[in-house]
Design brief:
The chain has 14 helices and 19 strands. The two termini are 32 Å apart. By secondary structure, it is α+β, with helices and mostly antiparallel strands. The protein is globular, with a radius of gyration of 24 Å. Helix 1 crosses helix 4, helix 2 packs antiparallel against helix 4 and helix 4 crosses helix 13. The longest helix has 18 residues.
């Protein structure tokens, strides 16, 4: 019985085909939470597909639900001892819609292996990552006969819909979900060949800005030069918010500074696009920041869509209205409650007081960032380095948004995410896939981490690390 034995046992599930069979069964369930009538299928996936896997591992399960949630969360726990550290793990079983445009011979809800890649909706986001963690837990139990720690697992069914109801579920069950640390897997690594930890996520908020000048279209030959054009005005209004090179012109939308230890960790990582990725526009965004600082520790304000007139059926007439949807991604240090008021002030001061700024219309994610010098970060990073033979990339927060603030703020947990996908996985698009080699490596990393957490000293680990953090020790 050894650490290497547990790692080998986890990876054996790939060689035997057991991992692929389980993941293929899960991919075949079209658990798209955004589609009407999804609740029954989401509940069935939780009860019929996931719960039996946990039961076989000695977990007890129950469903946690809320009227706003697209489907119930599956809660599973294996409590081995009152004096042991407890880890809460998170994943999601829902996916986005299948979508058209998959390559010939591929289908969103039928897993296919091709050129060392598993294709199918959910292979990367998030069923494949959940499958990695569960098979690693299986390997540890099979090798050691026990975990050596307590595990609570929460699998939600609405992450792709913005996690409606999840905050309420966690608040109502805060005592049930109490733990020493959140360990979760979602999103991509920094790069295919670079194991990664991220400690939080940027927040996200979307809102519309709109100009309604009049009722109806007016012939441009009769009225051109006499009537204001909402499309032209809206474009100029946007430049009051975003500069020529993508820099944000509203101070309330950006952090006052990037902490020095965040800069230090980001100086050790590099965003390296692959051949299939677009090249980075180096002169875009906030001047003076590295690409890594821009996407992992600063704000970005993007125009996501614009509407003006009707391109499909041109009318040769001045449009009566124009509208755009903007999205702000923002780190710790930006108050989301000030975003819309600040945008309104900026537009008014620039002479665009007639632009309507609507209140946020979609789910709002709040930013989180665990201190990169927190002792749990050092422990998890050390375990992964021991297995991988090289230090993982440590990102203070990913550029995207996740419901991490629920765990970090509402439940008060340190949060560490260990992603098992990569930037070119095509999540949310046609041809979503997971590299088989990445899954194999990830299984070893997680089996090694679980082994280290379950060592004999683990009963003292949580208290020791918490004490060091409280005392300001590294």
């Amino acid at each position: 019985m050894s650490r290497d034995t547990a790692i080998a046992a986890a990876r054996e599930t790939l060689a035997s085909g057991a991992f692929a069979r389980r993941l293929a069964d899960w991919v075949a369930r079209p658990t798209a939470s955004r589609l009407p009538g999804a609740r029954e299928g989401l509940a069935a996936f939780a009860e019929s597909d996931l719960a039996p896997v946990f039961h076989a591992l000695g977990f007890q399960t129950r469903l946690l639900d809320h009227p706003d949630a697209p489907g119930p969360c599956l809660y599973a726990e294996r409590i081995e001892g009152a004096g042991l550290p407890t880890f809460l793990q998170y994943g999601h079983g829902d996916v986005v819609a299948g979508l058209d445009g998959w390559s010939e011979g591929l289908s969103p809800f039928e897993m296919t292996e091709r050129d060392g890649l598993w294709f199918g909706r959910g292979t990367a986001d998030n069923k494949g990552q959940l499958c990695v963690n569960l098979t690693a837990l299986e390997a540890l139990i099979a090798t050691r006969g026990r975990l050596g720690f307590n595990v609570k697992y929460l699998v939600e069914m609405g992450e792709e819909s913005g996690s409606p109801g999840l905050r309420e579920i966690c608040r109502e069950n805060a005592a049930l979900l109490a733990a020493d640390l959140l360990i979760a897997s979602d999103g991509p690594r920094l790069a295919l060949d670079r194991p990664t930890l991220f400690l939080g996520a940027r927040g996200g908020v979307s809102f519309y800005i709109e100009i309604v000048a009049r009722d109806g279209f007016q012939h441009s030959g009769n009225w051109g030069g006499l009537l204001s054009n909402p499309g032209v005005e809206l474009c100029h209004a946007i430049t009051a918010l975003i500069g020529r090179h993508g820099e944000i012109r509203v101070r309330e939308l950006v952090p006052a500074a990037i902490p020095e230890n965040v800069r230090r960790h980001l100086s050790r990582v590099t965003i390296t696009p692959t051949a299939d990725d677009p090249p980075i526009d180096r002169d875009w965004g906030e001047p003076g920041l590295t690409p890594e600082e821009k996407v992992f520790a600063f704000s970005s304000l993007e125009v996501m869509e614009m509407e003006c007139g009707n391109l499909a059926q041109p009318l040769y007439a001045i449009p009566p209205r124009a509208r755009a949807r903007l999205q702000l991604r923002f780190p710790v240090g930006v108050d989301v409650a000030q975003v819309v008021p600040a945008v309104r002030r900026a537009l008014t001061e620039a002479g665009f007081g007639h632009v309507t700024v609507h209140e946020p219309h979609d789910a709002i994610f709040l930013p989180t960032r665990l201190d990169p010098d927190h002792p749990w970060v050092g422990f998890v990073a050390g375990s992964i380095e021991r297995t991988a033979g090289a230090a993982p990339a440590i990102l203070p927060g990913i550029g995207g948004s996740l419901p991490n603030d629920i765990f970090a703020t509402d439940l008060g947990l340190p949060t560490i995410w260990i992603p098992h996908s990569y930037p070119s996985c095509r999540q949310h698009a046609a041809d979503e896939h997971l590299p088989v080699a990445l899954a194999r490596e990830a299984q070893g990393l997680m089996a090694g981490l679980y082994w280290d957490l379950g060592e004999a000293a683990a009963s003292r680990l949580a208290a020791d690390l918490t004490s060091k953090h409280d005392q300001g020790q590294p």
